[in-house]
Each structure stands twice: as structure tokens, then as C-alpha cells.
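Figure S4 source data
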Amino acid sequence: MSEVQHMDAMQQKWQGYRRQSGPPGIRNRVLVIYTVKCSEFVARRIVEQSAHPDVELIGFDGCTDNQYAVDLLISLIRHPNVGAVLAVGLGCEYIQPQWLADIAEHAGKPARWMFIQQQGGTAPSIEKGLCWVKELLQELQNTPRVEMGMSDLIIGAECGGSDYTSGLAGNVVVGRFFDRLVDAGGAAIFEEIVEAVGLDKLLVGRAANEKAAQEIRYTYDKALDYCRSVRQYSVSPGNFAGGLSTIEEKSMGAVIKSGSRPIQGVLKVSVQPPQHGLWLLDSTPDPHWMQFGITNPNDNEGLMDLASCGAHIVFLVTGRGSVVGSAVAPCIKITGNHETFTRMAGDMEFDASPILRGAVTQAELTEQLAQYVAQIAAGTQTKSEALGHREFFIPYKYQEKQVAFQRACEIDK
């Protein structure tokens, strides 16, 4: 083991990528964006045929306006891990690729855009896109480097495919790491307020100030109202098969990943933390005519929500195992189930199960996770990155940019 590896992980430094505006990044990627489902094929072919690990895809399927999706795309363009942008549109959709490219250039990131209709169809558009991607990659070679440390990081966490070990090991080590990250001057974001059922007093009691307490109280009540209105809570057959009994039991495991530090306030999707510390992300729709019948569509929506808040890295804690990665922000998959880790060793990044066997202390396991985070931040690929897992999901949704303090029942009055 080298001298650097013996160093306290929270003190380690690495070279990041300086941005003209905003914090530095740990990756320097060309983001190819499709602005409507009709342009996805061309955009995906550009990414696939470029065959470059720093070229990746995101997009929005919808043809009509949705401010939530627009805000999310803009936040990913401005994300510190993104160095350049290529926006691909068909030509008749609401979200215009030139507008997205202009936003990227205003943030100091080289950008290109196209309408497939104007390029002459599929083959000419792919050819043009590949040429532009090559140019953008060349430009990114000149990106200035800057020293980074844990205090520069924003890290987000969510659960997916939880089992009985999630609340005993996987989420526990994330919570302890979050405590250390916050103490080091970094920012930590946890989400899934719909998985905090029954724990409202605990969360409100951890508020850093009265404003944060009001935001948490409102956000919890809104989420509970939403779950009741759509008659669905964030618990699945897979959770029951993994040994969980109720949404309340799942909630206790889910909330422990937030650690123990004061909660500075509530973030909305696409809003970066205004300062370091621990933050709760609210991804539940705000009161509106638009409802979906589900609380969390899938894990990748949650990961994209975290990335939209500027998370350099995202954690996915999963007892039963997962294979997904994340676009823009490298995904570290953590499990407290040793059988899961062994069976899915090619996909799972971190095994938290030794704590259950008494093989390590909580402090030792937390340091191991911190060391791994430092390696990923310094440029080492996660297993999902190496395999090419860069999933994303951007749905239609209605959500305000700030906590609105208006309950659904008040709208009808």
C-alpha cells in the first residue's frame, strides 16, 4: 500500500477540471443531448459510434413543454463534470437545441447543435455529429486543471432494491461517510422523502434552523399527501422478499443514510446546495393537476435528480443488487449483503457487509468507503462506468424551484 493510501481519505487531493463558472469537476465529458424522442436514435448512434468513454447521452422524450424537464437539462449542461455539449433535435419540438447550446456556451463550455430535418436525415446527421464530437474532444484537451479535495465535492445518495441489510450496513456506512464529508466542508444530499414515513419528528428535530424546520415539515406533509392521493407508497415486492416488512421499517433504514449532522434545508430538483452541509432533496411533485400514480418511477430518476443538484458522485445503496450506472455523475453501488456482492461482483462497487460479521469497526469501514470515493474522484472508473452503464431518466413532472408552502388541500379553497 502506498503512502497516499495510508493518508486519511478526507485529506487527499487530486486534479480536477476548472470551469469558467461553478465548481470544478471530476470528469470532463461531452454530453450529447436529444431534445425529443424522435431525435434519440441519431443522438444515441453518435455516442455509440464515437466509442469514447467521455462521450455520453442524456435526453428528454417529450415533445411538449415541461419546465421540470427543461430545468433538469439545463442543470446537467451546467454540471461540473460536463465540459462540452452537442444538442440534437428533430426540428419541430418545444425544447430547441440551439437554445441549449447557447446556455452551454454562456457557461464557458464549447457547444454544437443540429436539426436532423435540416441536416438531411439520419445518416448525414450521425456523420455531422461524429465530426463535431471529435472537435469537442479535441477542445477539451485544453481544459485547465485545478487541485480538488473532499471539501469541493457534492455527493448524493439514494436507496434502490433495499433488503434487511440496507438499514443495518449499507445505509449506515453512507450516513457515517456523510458526517465526515460535511465535517470536511463538503456537501451531502439525501433524497426519497417518500421513504421517511413515520420519521417526520426525527427529521424536523435535526433542522439546522427554523426555516429548515419549516421546509422539512412542509416537504414531509406534501409527500405523505401525495402517497395517499395516488394510493402508493415507496415499497415494493422486492423489499418484502429481501426481509423488510413495512414502509415504516424501510423508512428507518432509508433515513439513516443521511447520517447525524444538522439538515441545512430542502433542495428542489435542479437546484445546487447554496452552501456546504447536509441537504434533503425533494423530488415529489408539487400540488398540481399533473399526477402519475407512482412516487418514485425508478432508481435512475432519483440518480438524475441528485446529479441535477450538482452531485459529482452518486451513491446507490442496494441490498438486493443493481446493475445501473448514472449519466454525468459516476455511480457507486453499495450493498450490505455479502451474498449480493459476491454474486454480482462485476457490478457492485462496495461491500459493507463486514460490519455485520464484526470483521471491521464502523470507523474502519467508513474510511474504506472514503478511500474509494477519493479514488473515483481522482479519475478511477466505477464498475458501472467501465461496463458502459450510463443510464438516465427524465420524466414529465410539475415542481416549483423553491419550497412553496402550499398544501394540496389548500388549492381547492
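Figure S5 source data
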Amino acid sequence: MGPTMRFTVAYWCVLVAVLLPYLCAYLAKSGGFGKPRSQGGYDNVDPRAWLGGLTDWRARANAAQANSFEALPFFIGAVVIAHQLAAPQTRLDILAVLFVTLRIIYIAMYVAGLAAMRSLIWAAAFLVNVGILLSAWH
């Protein structure tokens, strides 16, 4: 296996980024686990309607889930393109770790209801993602 065929830190970051929306979903649904549907427990028959009825931080966790899924295509594409164009691996790995770190902070800010800070973190993560995409540009 050649040096360009290894599983890099940036690829591991893709896996972590893919798992983040599921963490958000767990947070959103956690209050409904173990309760009967008749008492407001999680409704696996109609989960979207049940999630639509959430309020406060659980509703924000559900919104963070949606946004985390929305951020994935650009991040995955940027990492793959950067690898294909032989971006400097250390730079790519650092940027990917930074992106994932910012996304984790973003989720925390979203769930906490800190909208202005959340938006700043979102913008920073987006710019880091642009940096990943352009990291192979010579």
C-alpha cells in the first residue's frame, strides 16, 4: 500500500463528522427514551412529528442534527479532493481536526442557545472547510 493509500487523520475526521449528527439526534431524543408514547415518550412510529414537537435545548439539538448533515457533503468532498490533489498531508490533517473541533463547539453552542457565538463558529468552520478544499492549490 503506497503513501497515498493510507487511512489519514483527515479520513478519520470524516468518520467523526459523520457521527456528529447521530450524537445530536441522541441528545434530542434522550428525554423520550424509556417512556411510553402515551406519556410523551419517543415515537418511533412517527419520529419526525415527535421531533417537531420538541422545545428548548432538545429542539435545538434536533436542529443541530439537521445542520450537521448539511455540512457533511462539503467536508467530505473537500477532504477527498484535497487528497486527490496531493495536498500537504499535515496541513490537511490539521485543518480537518480543526473543522471537526469547530463543529463540536458549534453543536454545543447550538444546544446551549448561544445563537451569535454559534453563527461565528459556523462561519469559522465553513472557512476552514474552504481551506481544506484549497489546501492543494499550488
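The mean pLDDT is 91. The CA atoms of residues 12 and 23 lie 17 Å apart.
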